[in-house]
Description:
The protein is α+β, with helices and mostly antiparallel strands. It is 51% helix and 16% strand. The chain folds into 3 domains: 3-92, Acyl-CoA dehydrogenase/oxidase, N-terminal domain (Butyryl-Coa Dehydrogenase, subunit A, domain 1, Orthogonal Bundle), CATH 1.10.540.10; 125-232, Butyryl-CoA Dehydrogenase, subunit A, domain 2 (Beta Barrel), CATH 2.40.110; 236-387, Up-down Bundle (Butyryl-CoA Dehydrogenase, subunit A, domain 3), CATH 1.20.140. It is built from 11 helices and 11 strands.
Amino acid sequence: xxxxxxLSAAKIAARVERFxxxxxxxxxxxxxxxxxGPSDDLVRELRTKARDAxxxxxxxxxxxxxxxxxATAMVLKPxxxxxxxxxxxxxxxxxxxxxxxxxxxxxxxQKERFLRPLVRGEVRSAFFMTEPAAEGGxxxxxxxxxxRCYRDGDDWIVNGRKAFITGAQGASVGIVMAKADEGACMFxxxxxxxxxxxxxxxxxxDSSMPGGHSIVxxxxxxxxxxxxxxxxxxxxxxxxIRLAPARLSxxxxxxxxCQRAHEIATAYACTRMAFGKPLVDHEGVGFMLAENxxxxxxxxxxxxxxxDILDSGSLGTAESSMAKVAVSEALMRxxxxxxxxxxxxxxSGDTIVEQVFREVRAFRIYxxxxxxxxxxxxxxxxxxxxxxxxxNSEGTA
Length: 397
């Protein structure tokens, strides 16, 4: 990252942090925050404030250019200081990842029709890839995709069921993934559409994403050929274009949330008296806060390292897997320690710490559970060893 962008990103990040701490945090107790995320009315109110403050969609500049991943990290981390922060400034999943993908793959017409309203924060979107496990559908293994599509003249017809579709309830833009004879395909669709029906909203432990997570039925959805995103059969490649930086963006946002939880737990430990002295002076408590500081810094360094890899032009699949594992596990330790330090208060709704714990626990699964990323990395370790062993054998022949 060059000095000019570094300075610009730092200024944007400072404005985002001030806005989240001063304007967004007071909304955390708003009645419009429900079990399936903030209501659309609350989202509109928050985004109006963000627009007025000049911090709406801050990672995309006025000319449409996207900040580098390193600069994006500087901006997204303070957005996460409140679970409502990424929603307010329009950097929350799945919209942030969908904007990135459309910006990379979409045609000019698609960008004007589907991307611009997202960047302006006027609409929300959903990414329709995951499918019900009970039906053998795609989850961590997208090659198991059961949703099918076929050509019908100049259009495509899509049929299938999707699961854990974040933000489908209330979304105006959808990216639907399905399999054709040519391979996986992606389509941009206008929502709502009678052919895309929400069967039910899932009750999950997290509650920060507008629209919650839905089971969705797709029956004979007709999509004009001009709304295919990219080329037929290239859907899995495009998924990686989206998922690698999206995993890292999750790390950025939830890093901010855990920083806030740590601040709250620290204030509690420094003011709460027990056995004749502040909690922080008891080694069992003070050491937990010290470990938080270590995990926060290590997670931040991992985020920056992976951002640099992506900025170098590499797809960064392995690096984003490493970051997802290391950061999500570190943040889970931090959130857990914050709850433990605060005792009964930590498991109550009196502070945001309890919600941060729930959100980060879900993060260990979303965008690929830890075990899947480790498995993928282990395969790479084996492959690299075999290639190196083969080269060594050739060299000694």
